[in-house]
Amino acid sequence: MCSKMREVGSLRLLVIKGKNANRHIFTSCVVLFLACFGTTSSVECPDKCGCTTTTVECVSQNLISIPQPLTLNITTLLLNGNNIFSLSEESFPVRLEQLTNLYLSGNRIEQVDPGVFNNLPSLHLLDLSNNKILNFSPDAFPDHSMLQVLNLSRSLYNASYVDVVSDLLNKSVPELSHLILSNNGLLFLPDSIFNSLLNLTTVDLRNNSIVLIKSGTFRSRALNYLDLRDNALKRLLNGTLADFDQIPGLRLYLAGNPWHCDCNLGDMVIWLQRSDLVADKMNLTCAEPTELRNTQLLKLKDEELQCIYSRDMKSVLETSYVFLGMVLALIGVIFLLVLYLNRKGIKRWMYNIRDACRDHMEGYHYRYEINSDPRLANLSLNSDV
Predict the structure, then answer these.
(1) Measured between alpha carbons, how far is 238 from 219 in angstroms, rounded to an integer?
(2) What's the whole-model pTM score?
C-alpha cells in the first residue's frame, strides 16, 4: 500500500514539473517573437536613412521631401544637406508626439506653409540655418507651441525679409528662449521684434550689418546672452545703454564693430568704464578718426573725443567760400570780356541814347519858350489855323 502511494506522488510531481517547463517554453517563445518582430516594426526606417530606436538620420541624400514613414517614437530627425525646397502640411502627415529636435539645415528651403508643425506638439529645437527663406507663415506652428530653440543663421533670402521673422516671433513662438539670427546681412531690427518673447535668454546677431540699436529693442529681463559682434555699430544710444542696465545678469558682446570715436561716444565710454555687462570690452577699438584708429575705447580721454564733424564742416565752409569767390571772379571776367568784344556796338548805342535824349530835351525847351512869350504863343496859334 505504501509503495502504491509513493508511485502516485511521484507521478503528480512529474506532471507539475512538466507544466512549469511548458510555461517557461511559452514565455521564451513570446519574448523571442517580440524581439524579432516587435522591435523591427518600431524602427522601420525610411529609404536612404539610418535609424535607431529614437533617431532618424537622412543627411545629404538629395531628398526633395520629408521621408516617410516616420516611426511614432522618434525624438530626433536629422535632414541636413538635402534639396527640400518647401515645407507644407503634408510634410508631417502623422502626429509625432515625442519628436523634440528637427534639423533642416542646408536644404535651400524657401517656403514654410501654415500648419507645417501642427503634428509636432513637443518640438523644442528647430534648425533652419543655411536656407533661402522667402516666406515663413506665422501659422506654421500649433497653438501653444513649445519651441524653445530656433536657429535661423544664414537662412533669409536677403536682409529685407527680416519682417517675416519679426511677424513669426511676435505671433507663434511665445516660449522661445534661444534665437540665432547670425550671418543674415541685417541692417536694422524692426521695432518690437522681441517684445513678445518674455522667456528669451539668448540672442545671437553676429556678423550682420546692423547700424543702430534703438531704445526698447531689448527689454526681456530674462536675457542673459546678447551677441552683437561684427556688425556696423558706430555708437550705442543713451536710451539703449539704459535698457541694458535694466537687465540683470546680461552678458553683452560688442567686439568687431567700427566705433566712431568722437564727442558723441563720450557717454558710452563712461558707461563701459563703470559697467561689467560687456564681456569683451577690452577688445573694443576705434575705427575713426584715423589718428585714433585701433585705440581701445577704455583708454580714451575726454580731450581726444572731439567733434570731428564740426571741424570738417568748418573746412567745408572755407572751401565753399573760396569756390564762391572763384565763381564770382569768373563771372566778372566774362562780363568784362563781353563788354570789350561789343565795345563799338555799345558806343553806338550810347550815342543813340544821347542823341535821343538831346532831341527830347530840345523839344521841351522849345515848348517852354513858346509858353513863356504870349506873342509867340499867338503866332503859333495863327500858324496852326
Answers:
(1) 15
(2) 0.70
